[in-house]
Amino acid sequence: MMQEGGYYCSKKTDDICEDVCGQESTRGALSMSRLRCILRGLDFKSYVLLFIIVPMCILGIYIHGQKITYFLRPIWESPPKPFIEIPHYYHENVSMENLCKLHGWGIRESPRRVFDAVLFSNEVDILSIRWNELYPYITQFVLLESNSTFTGLPKPLVFATNRDKFKFVKSRLTYGTIGGRFKKGENPFVEEAYQRVALDQLLRIAGITDDDLLIMSDVDEIPSRHTINLLRWCDETPAVLHLRLRNYLYSFEFLLDNKSWRASVHRYQTGKTRYAHYRQTDYILSDSGWHCSFCFRRISEFIFKMKAYSHNDRVRFSHYLNPSRIQDVICRGADLFDMLPEEYTFKEIIGKLGPIPHSYSAVHLPGHLLQNADKYKYLLPGNCKRERG
Ligand SMILES: *[C@@H]1O[C@H](CO)[C@@H](O)[C@H](O)[C@H]1NC(C)=O
Ligand SMILES: *[C@@H]1O[C@H](CO)[C@@H](O)[C@H](O)[C@H]1NC(C)=O
Ligand SMILES: *[C@@H]1O[C@H](CO)[C@@H](O)[C@H](O)[C@H]1NC(C)=O
């Protein structure tokens, strides 16, 4: 009776198979043995399918589900409406009048006032580079920080403890704090929206008035100095304008693309202008600065950010937070969350597969970064090693 279908039992289990399928079984074991006999009736291929391929597929979908959905994204999602790109002209020796004219704008008799408002988390170095870059043209720097991350984790008031590093903006700073609501299991975008509303109030406290310019961007989205100077001097610029920024990851060694678009500059209108970080108009000014994501000095800051930011659901496995793995990912220019590129066409997804190529250009970077290259070495090409702890 072992001749047919028995070959999948190894020598050791032969006895068991025989036992079970033999007629001697007790009543209690009967249903169990029937099942085993049925299983024995299946051929080898079905077995492989049932117990190896199917579980592997389920495991594969569990582990790589994001990759599968992102890869198929071009099928289920069409790209957003393209922006209307405004060409950007700049050279240090061209007069402002000519620069405005090149953009089809007139020049003003005096520049507009400019407010730069950010929600701060913990990016002290990037804030320092940002404020030094923008310093000559900003009327008031407005900074709000909360003791809660967007995901509801308690966080220290990092700006408050580093305030001595920002003495140079003291006379132009409006600083505010806000208590987190610490709602468990809430969508992180709710806390983020709550903090942005508070930032609107802080802007009024800072004295913003109609027709002042307001920069709305994350701390790590840094408009270049000459871009802001152009916008404050020229007339007839769009009332709301997105800024196209070069997208860097981990440092200025990894230039991902030139597609960052969320930063925007608004001509403030009381009661109408609301601080936001999504698409607000079709117009975008080309090559207007830098967006350096995950540009941290310490591995611990990477871990904090991975847990704290609005897409924290991307930390699907705890080993993603392993410091050695994070260091290795940074040096390779790979993805911290092991995700596929978020693109809308197969061509772009495939074009971006694998790590970001190294860039060896440190030309046209923020001035404060190069003037203090020793201090910010980890942000420059060829220095991917981060501080532990
Ligand atoms: C740019 O202008 C400065 C000062 O006006 C002048 O010294 C310099 O030679 C100019 N450079 C070029 C390339 O025209
Ligand atoms: C956060 O700040 C608020 C207001 O300052 C305070 O009442 C609350 O205790 C703080 N929570 C934590 C966890 O620090
Ligand atoms: C981004 O733009 C810069 C300057 O316009 C260019 O040198 C660079 O090659 C562009 N990079 C990518 C990835 O498109």
Automatic annotation (TrEMBL):
UniProtKB keywords: Membrane, Transferase, Transmembrane, Transmembrane helix
GO biological process: N-acetylglucosamine metabolic process
Residue ranges crossing the lipid bilayer per the database entry: 44-63
Matches recorded under PANTHER family: BETA-1,4-MANNOSYL-GLYCOPROTEIN 4-BETA-N-ACETYLGLUCOSAMINYLTRANSFERASE, BETA-1,4-MANNOSYL-GLYCOPROTEIN BETA-1,4-N-ACETYLGLUCOSAMINYL-TRANSFERASE
GO molecular function: beta-1,4-mannosylglycoprotein 4-beta-N-acetylglucosaminyltransferase activity
Gene Ontology CC annotation, any one: membrane
Leader sequence residues: none
InterPro entries: Glyco_trans_17 (IPR006813)
Protein name from the UniProt record: Glycosyl transferase
